[in-house]
Amino acid sequence: MSTPDNKRKNKSATALRYDGKTAPEVIAKGHGALADDILAVAKAHGILIHEDEELNKLLTQLELGDTIPKELYVIIAELIAFSYVLQGKFPDEWDNIHQRIDLKT
């Protein structure tokens, strides 16, 4: 059974940056106390955090500066899109989209 100290040592975090033009890239990663620091900085700056152990296992295999592999494009794109919605951000072309949907077709 792991103790809280062991859980903290095994904790890991990976931060991605997305500029809207190229694939997201790894800008920070760490384990233990460094992971806690990465999460604290993200929270302090209002950056949304997604905790997913399996996804993080894949991301921790990447090096700093690496872009995510094509196999992760869909899941990362969905997370980015969902984070935008949570922040109330929508593409300009979504303006009044509910009025343009034709359910009769």
TrEMBL record:
Q: What does this protein do?
A: Required for formation of the rod structure in the basal body of the flagellar apparatus. Together with FliI and FliH, may constitute the export apparatus of flagellin.
Report the protein name in the record: Flagellar biosynthetic protein FlhB
Return the similarity comment: Belongs to the type III secretion exporter family.
The answer to whether UniProt assigns keyword Protein transport to this entry is yes
The UniProt keywords, alphabetically, are: Bacterial flagellum protein export, Protein transport, Transport
Task: Extract the SUPFAM superfamilies matched here.
Answer: EscU C-terminal domain-like (SSF160544)
Q: Which domain of life is it from?
A: Bacteria
The taxonomic lineage of its organism, from the top, reads: Bacteria, Pseudomonadati, Pseudomonadota, Gammaproteobacteria, Alkalimonas
